[in-house]
Amino acid sequence: MPDAVAHVGSGKVRELYALDEARLLLVASDRISTFDVVLPTEVPDKGRVLTGLSGFWFAQTRDLCPNHLLALRPDGRSTECRRLEMLPLECVVRGYLSGSGWKDYQRTRGVCGHALPAGLAESERLPEPIFTPSTKAVTGHDENIDRGQAAELVGADLLEQVERVSLELYRFAAEHAAGRGILIADTKFEFGRDDQGRLVLGDEAFTPDSSRFWPAEEYEPGGPQPSFDKQYARDYCESLGWDKTEPGPELPDDVVAGTRARYVDAFERLTGVDFDAYLADPEVVLR
């Protein structure tokens, strides 16, 4: 990284650098986290999949919501972005009952304040997609919250806009993905505001790190589903009886290879671009 570029922060996966007062450089590493813990084993090319898929979706959805993307760099893992004032909220949309949503439903017959019909099965498609925000934890785990709690964090008017845009983005991407043989069970967005106060989509969009991707041809409600995301690594970690605190377990070679294969498969299905073609010319996903 050039000396003139200052390192300003690290996320679970990304490193952030300041290009100038208006722009950041986001570099997606090959780190993988499960249950908000970064594992000691990396997954080759994972960062390039995240960057390429995000670039693809940013290009596809810019008419629905402006985003922070300015350029993809030739390494396929670095993104030049606009600086934003990020909202202290994880914006989750669920189209199917899975993960923490399924656990909440089992306890309360609802998810984040949404009352749901009785008798739903694990992984069942919901009558309508629902917006289920969560906190954005600096350390530890994010926690599901209801709309009232979310409104306290960002204000009622902004929350209404965030919910509407989140649902529009999900419906658009879910329709596209279904045509490519992938069901988007749920997904997570992060939004910020630019220097004019406009809502802008940031971070990443519809990646295997921020979404649950299920193969449509194998979908069968009533239990966990095969996936194209990091659920494969999560399942391995859970099988160890790990307490989901630091340090995370090492991943064996077969889990690393299986995770990489699932990420690349999701990339190629969703973008229609061969992954090797992306490595040769990252901007192909923007066209």
Fold and architecture overview:
This protein is of the alpha+beta class. 32% of the residues lie in helices and 24% in strands. It starts with 5 loop residues before the first strand and ends in a 7-residue tail after the last helix. The mean pLDDT is 94.
Give a short summary of the structure.
The chain is of the alpha+beta class and 287 residues long. It is 32% helix and 24% strand.
- Share of residues in strands: 15-25%
- Which spans have pLDDT < 50 for at least 5 consecutive residues? none
Largest sheet composition: 6 strands, antiparallel
State the helix count.
7
| Rg (CA only) | 18 Å
Task: Name the overall outline.
Answer: globular
Q: Percent helix among the residues?
A: 25-40%
Q: Order of helices and strands, N to C? A: EEEEEHEEEEHEEEHHEEEHHH
* DSSP strand tally: 15
Averaged pLDDT: 94
Judged by helices, strands and strand pairing, the structural class is alpha+beta
What is the first-to-last residue Cα distance?
27 Å
List the defining traits of the structure above.
single chain, 287 residues, alpha+beta, 6-stranded antiparallel β-sheet, 5-stranded antiparallel β-sheet, 7 helices
Summarize the helices and strands and which ones pair or pack.
Blueprint: E1 6-10, E2 14-18, E3 23-28, E4 33-34, E5 37-38, H1 46-61, E6 69-72, E7 78-82, E8 85-86, E9 91-96, H2 99-108, E10 110-111, E11 114-115, E12 125-131, H3 147-154, H4 156-179, E13 182-193, E14 199-202, E15 211-215, H5 231-239, H6 253-271, H7 275-280
Antiparallel strand pairs: 1-2, 2-3, 3-7, 4-5, 6-7, 8-13, 9-12, 9-13, 10-11, 13-14, 13-15
